Amino acid sequence: MKASDLFIKALENEGVEYIFGLPGEENLDFLESLRKSKKIKLVLTRHEQGAGFMAATYGRLTGKPGVCLATLGPGATNLVTPAAYAQLGAMPLVMITGQKPIKKSKQGKFQIIDVVEMMQPLTKFTKQVTHGAHIPSITREAFRLAQEERPGAVHIELPEDIAEEQVDNAAIFDVVDYRIPHVDTETITKAANMIKAAKKPLLLIGAGANRKRASTALTEFVDTLGIPFFNTQMGKGIIDERHPMYLGTAALSDSDFLHEAISNADVIINVGHDTIEKPPFFMHTEDKRQVIHLNFFPAEIDEVYFPHLNVIGDIANSVNQLTEALKVFAKSWDIDFFLKVKQNVAKHLAKYKEDNRFPILPQRLVNVIRNTLPENGIVTLDNGIYKIWFARNYLHICKTV
């Protein structure tokens, strides 16, 4: 079997549906093999950077690795920013780049750079295929690492002469699932006791909770226990923001409308905290408020974040265990102040959303977009102050940002 055909079979085995990218001389064998696939569609883009962003965003919204394709040299270097975007944003991304023949160079060093070395600080895994028989194992390992917590970017380089060589007796590796270990009972008991003893507990949902099973578990937690919640910008949509217990989004780190609630909470259950985001609040050594860090990984400690308890393990399982442990205390906490904050925030946010003055106000623009798009309409945002307006004013019904 031709090596490029084997590569496509390995990608099909991983459940790949789309590859975003651009043709190039060094990936023509790969593209011809892709043309014959009945399971994978090539989405042609106008720039490799766009292909990388599309694939990374596909990964963020589906939880499955998005795949992009570029040629060598400038094609590969155009994937640097998407690689950083996916790696920082915990988005599963698989980048495939071509390369000149490695066994016999036809054009000297024209456009040849060490792409594998270039991708090293930006990815979880980067490897050149040096023999066609290695394709199945390299592909399986790349996809495993792209999805494994914390998700991110991986890179595979397929040289032109390797893509066209014949491979005998190559086997495709099964996709073997795994489960993240569960938190121990003693830690769950400690967390439950802290929440039981609280008068005004508050749930915070961050980027790390942006997983399907965690979304379901958190919704049940809030529904069952009646504990109000707020989220970070990348935690939006994990629970439907039409929920009566939703207070708002922490668009700033301090002195925002929502921080009135945060300041009055005596326990914050911080689920999926990710240091890549703007801190949703600052901790101070003199605070009486306690913070529970519930995540896949222990907290990274610094002067503004030093939680009192780490609850480390599969997020969905940890939340489910807490829900069960606290069920008998459901809706026994004082939430009156939080609901007043919710009303205050809603009043401020509604003030200009129907204002028709020109130039158009940000609040009005966000309101028009929300009313125009369907519930599952996707919004893509670059970085800038307008993100604050979307964080505060755009009501997320599902994960669409």
Task: Give the arrangement of secondary structure elements.
Elements: H1 3-13, E1 18-21, H2 28-35, E2 41-44, H3 48-62, E3 66-70, H4 74-77, H5 80-89, E4 93-99, H6 115-119, E5 125-128, H7 135-147, E6 153-159, H8 160-164, H9 185-197, E7 201-205, H10 212-225, E8 229-231, E9 246-249, H11 259-264, E10 267-271, E11 290-295, E12 309-312, H12 315-326, H13 336-350, H14 362-372, H15 386-393
Parallel strand pairs: 1-2, 1-3, 3-4, 4-6, 5-6, 7-8, 7-10, 8-9, 10-11, 11-12
What is the second-level CATH architecture of the largest domain?
A: 3-Layer(aba) Sandwich
Mean pLDDT, all residues: 94
Structural class: alpha/beta
Molecular shape? globular
| Order of strands in the sheet with most strands | 2-1-3-4-6-5
Percent in helix: 25-40%
The CATH topology annotation of the largest domain reads as Rossmann fold
**Based on DSSP secondary structure assignment, what is the total number of beta strands?**
12
Oligomer: single chain
CATH superfamily of the largest domain, please? TPP-binding domain
Radius of gyration: 24 Å
Q: Give the biggest beta sheet.
A: 6 strands, parallel
Low-confidence stretches: none
The total number of structural domains is 2
What's the helix-strand series?
Answer: HEHEHEHHEHEHEHHEHEEHEEEHHHH
Approximately how much beta-strand content do the residues carry? 5-15%
Counted by DSSP, the helix tally is: 15
Q: What's the CATH C level of the largest domain?
A: Alpha Beta
Report how far the terminal alpha carbons are from each other.
41 Å
